[in-house]
Automatic annotation (TrEMBL):
Complex formation: Found in a complex with ARL3, RP2 and UNC119 (or UNC119B); RP2 induces hydrolysis of GTP ARL3 in the complex, leading to the release of UNC119 (or UNC119B). Interacts with ARL3; interaction is direct and stimulated with the activated GTP-bound form of ARL3.
Protein name: Protein XRP2
PROSITE patterns assigned: C_CAP_COFACTOR_C, NDPK_LIKE
Disordered: annotated segments: 1-33
Biological process according to GO: post-Golgi vesicle-mediated transport
Localization of this protein: Cell membrane
Length: 350
């Protein structure tokens, strides 16, 4: 017994003129714009200033290789970036959704943001970094790290497109796969290091169209103290819960506290469950349980003498109508901080 659909297909074939071939089928992937790998590569350059403007990379992979004494600026988000065999280069990379991998490079200065950062067979790199996971170095020497600080109008949207949080930055938490006894393969740049002295702004007319600032108070990524030695034995934890203005509130609080002379040690954006809140907030957990379903929380750790008292005053004055967790006193603050970041690092696999 024949199928009516097969009869229809047969009749369509019979109706097709003799000698005329059936046109090839068109699939959705055939309609995609063809990608030329050369548009996503800088190779074999010497003494040049080159770059890509916002919107020109749009999440593609990028390759930088065999460049010498070049200034390279990628003002867009990308999938992954590999930098091979580069010498005496200055490199800026906008947010990278996956990994940034330096191999066999030397005497380079860089500023970049990424999910994963790895260095292998390199020497003398100076890197201003925003990295969501633990940065890794391998078979490398004299690698120095600082906190990423950079601004241009499109950068915040590029972080979102790359799936990166501006508050998840492990720039100073370095893992050395190949430590050598008695030697230090990596270190932190001085806290007063000025980023544009390492990674200067571009000088070509095309790239100067990007409105850049390297001032710390304008940086999209909060500038943190990291794992440098703390100036005080008193710290304070603040946790802001998801809402319409959570990011703006966090940045406002950072500005206020830094203006008062306190140090921002580290930040984190992470989702919490009820059991996490009970472990971190303990007896105060019931105050916050209903807020957890709204989205991730943002945590800030500040340091300095009298920081708990001053932080409570700032929060009470500026965020009166916003539910916020603040350490209650100096004695419980350390427990608050350890509890929160232990939970957050485990959840994020750090």
């Amino acid at each position: 017994m024949g199928c009516c659909f097969s009869k229809r297909r047969n009749s369509e074939k019979e109706a097709q003129p003799q000698g005329e071939e059936e046109p090839p089928k068109q699939y959705s992937w055939d309609q995609r714009e063809k990608v030329d790998p050369k548009d996503y590569m800088f190779s074999g350059l010497k003494n040049e200033t080159v770059g890509r403007l916002p919107g020109k990379v749009a999440g593609q992979q990028f390759l930088i290789q065999d460049c010498e004494s070049c200034n390279i600026y990628i003002f867009d988000h990308s999938a992954t970036i590999t930098i091979d065999d580069c010498t005496n280069c200055i490199i800026f990379l906008g947010p990278v959704k996956g990994s940034v991998f330096f191999r066999n490079c030397r005497d380079c200065k860089c500023a970049l943001a990424c999910q994963q950062f790895r260095v292998r067979d390199c020497r003398k790199l100076e890197v201003f970094l925003c990295c969501a996971t633990q940065p890794i170095i391998e078979s490398s020497t004299n690698i120095k790290f600082g906190c990423f600080q950079w601004y241009y109008p499109e950068l915040a949207f590029q972080f979102k497109d790359a799936g990166l949080s501006i508050f998840n930055n492990n720039w100073s938490n370095i893992h050395d796969f190949t430590p050598v006894s008695g030697e230090v393969n990596w270190s932190l740049l001085p806290e007063n290091a000025v980023i544009h002295n390492y990674v200067p702004l571009p000088t070509t007319n095309e790239l100067q169209a990007v409105r850049i600032s390297t001032e710390a108070n304008r940086s999209i990524v909060p500038v943190t103290h990291g794992q440098r030695q703390k100036n005080s034995d008193e710290s304070c934890l603040v946790v802001l819960f998801a809402g319409d203005y959570t990011i703006a509130n966090a940045m406002k609080l950072i500005d206020e506290m830094v203006h008062l002379g306190f140090f921002l040690i580290r930040t984190k954006e992470v989702s919490m469950k009820a059991e996490d809140a009970e472990r971190v907030f303990r007896e105060r957990a019931p105050e916050f349980l209903q807020l957890l379903d709204k989205g991730p929380v943002i945590a800030l750790e500040f340091n300095g003498d009298r920081v708990v008292e001053d932080c409570q005053n700032v929060v009470n004055e500026i965020f009166k109508s916003t539910k916020t967790f603040v350490s209650q006193n100096k004695e419980t603050a350390s427990r608050d901080i350890d509890g929160f970041y232990n939970f957050a690092d485990i959840q994020m696999g750090i």
